Amino acid sequence: MAQLAASPPRSAEVTAPRVRPWLATATLAQREWVRFVRQPNRVFGAIGQPIIFWLLFGAGLGPTFRMNGDAGAQVSYSAYFFPGSLVLILLFTAIFATISIIEDRREGFLQSVLVAPIPRWSMVLGKVAGGSLIALVEGLLFLALGLTLGIPFTAAMLAQIVLLLAVIALALTSLGVVIAWRMDSTQGFHAIMSVFLMPMWLLSGAFFPAPPHVPGMSWIQWGLALVMQANPLTYGVAALRQLTTAADVPLPDGTPHMTTCWIVSLVFAAVMFAIACKMAGQRTAGDML
Amino acid sequence: MNESAAIRASRVTYHYGRRKALDELSLSIARGEIFAFLGPNGGGKTTLFRLLSTLIPLQEGDVEILSHDLRRQQAAVRATMGVVFQAPSLDRKLTVRENIRHQGHLYGLSGAELRARESEMLERLALADRAGERVEQLSGGLRRRVELAKGMIHHPRLLLLDEPSTGLDPGARSDLWNYLHMLRDEHGVTVVLTTHLLEEADKADRIGILHEGRLVALDTPDALRATVGGDAITIHTSDPGKLCAAIAAEFGCEPQILDGCVRLEQADGHRWIARLVEAFPGRIESVTLGKPTLEDVFIARTGHRFWQATGDSPAAALAR
Fold it and tell me: Quick one: how far is CA A42 from the chain centroid?
């Protein structure tokens, strides 16, 4: 600083370095939102496919679907598949949001963020918060469709649903950042999406319930049940199912308790966000084009 | 060198795996000067730019930027420096003003102060009437101006630019240099840039020539040219090897062979031409005489032609 004083500034433009991480987070999140709104195909892409899935699978699988054996016959597949479709919307939106990291890197925008005087967590949080907000809004649009199922929403339930959607969206967007951070092509991300993210969703109870633990179950069923139990997304789906199912409608056997669902979902989001920050904090030659 | 240098680097070495991209680089850049790192592609410019811009961590050696240690005071370095990348760093879906505003937020500016800075930047770079347009609709020259506006929004004391003329037409290049000179003269901003264009480096106050990761020359363009021994004489001949040896034997000087021509540097070039033509009648097809250029400096320091070292033709490089 003594050296700075030794050379008098020739203009009054010397400003003290300021670091405002939350401002950076807000501005990056806002940018995500503006980009999203300006690309209408993204708006449609993230919500269109889950709606189509929901309608088609609901109609196609409805007649043959039986939950919990014969006792669950009264649960329609549309109703069963509803929370799963909701999570699929979050997943797709999170995927679109994190693919944009690869685009940001390729188009060069990321490099100016990387040399800005902000901590890396604020950059990651900007991306994740922006992506999650978009996912949340799309999820809420789909939730409105749920009214057609005659789900009796109370204000307290709705508040819990919104909060839960936000937590799941945070977890999935952070997971997307973890996957996308070191990637240089969107093709690579699509590959991961097919072999990892979609199976993760399929095995979360979104599409079908876990096979019940009964004597004589095959080892494949046993393994499937184990994987579904270990999948953190299972708990988000289960919680959403409990919040969107009327009290007199039965739940699938083995549905975890609501508290467990909340804890697992929160831990999932926190761990994924921490890993994303750690990864983004490492500077490597791969940061450049 | 000045006590309070803008950039002071000592023994900076950088490896990509086993390849050495920078080799014990030491130099000092004074405040308020326009400094150009000149070198062929692969000479180490880009690595140096990435190090200075904090994109990659310092491996060996020390760097001080505006009295801040690059390794330990990274946040302070980032806050006091503006960076303009070679690859565009703009969000094409956003407008000019939005791009500048986001950048301002990243540098901790907000509210009325940021709005004032935005207007100032738009005005200064003659972008005011394009402020509401999306970047994807702008030409390359205009985009570079937006990059400059972004890089200067927080009034940095040092502006770092990577190959700033790339993709600009001559008019836009001249605008760019007028702006850089204005920053230096009116605001005392230190400008550090990399370039592989000889004529661009010539406009800088001082030049550092990088070759294979080493700094092979460091001075003002004129001083560097003066180090080359006088005029450059290039002789076209059918057998350069023989003629080269003959000239060396006859005159006791040290001609070189470059691109199939014999080349020598001597004071009083015009007298030498007469002597050479008389001494080797019929063996010289043509002779050209030139004042030394920065390329001659490069040849003298490295033994290579500049464009050979880039593996590039001047035309191809200019077209990029």
Answer: 16
Q: Are residues B212 and B281 in the same domain?
A: no
Q: Which of B66, B75, B80 sits opposite A19 (nearest CB)?
A: B75
Residues B132 and B256 in one domain: no
Tell me the nearest-neighbour CA distance from B174 into chain A, angstroms. 25
**Final residue of a structural domain among B163, B196, B224:** B224
Supply the DSSP symbol for B61: E
Claim to verify: residue B25 and residue B99 sit in the same structural domain: yes
Strand partners, A99: none
Asked if A34 and B98 come within 8 Å (Cβ–Cβ), the reply is: yes
Q: ipTM of the predicted structure? A: 0.83
Is B116 part of any domain?
yes
Task: Choose the final residue of a domain: B224, B259, B284.
Answer: B224
Tell me the nearest-neighbour CA distance from A130 into chain B, angstroms: 14
Q: Does B187 touch chain A if contact means CB atoms closer than 8 Å?
A: yes
Domain with B290 in it: 227-319
Confirm if B51 and B61 have CB atoms less than 8 A apart. Answer: no
Gyration radius from chain B CA atoms: 23
CATH number at residue B216: 3.40.50.300
B1 within domain boundaries: no
Going by the DSSP 8-state scheme, the letter that residue A63 receives in this structure is G
By CB atoms closer than 10 A (0-12, 13-18, 19+), residue B22 is buried
pLDDT tens, N- to C-terminus, chain A (289 residues): 333 333 334 443 444 557 899 999 999 999 999 998 888 787 777 778 788 888 888 888 877 777 765 554 577 888 888 899 999 999 988 888 888 888 898 888 999 999 999 999 999 999 999 999 999 998 988 888 777 777 777 888 889 999 999 999 999 999 999 998 888 788 888 888 888 999 999 999 888 888 877 777 888 888 999 999 999 999 999 999 999 887 777 788 778 899 999 999 999 999 999 999 999 988 664 544 4
Q: Which of A3, A7, A36 to mutate to test the interface with B (most CBs of B within 10 A)?
A: A7
Strands B190-195 and B206-211: unpaired
Which residue among A27, A39, A287 sits closest to B105, beta carbon to beta carbon?
A27
**Least CB–CB distance from B56: residue in A1, A4, A285:** A285
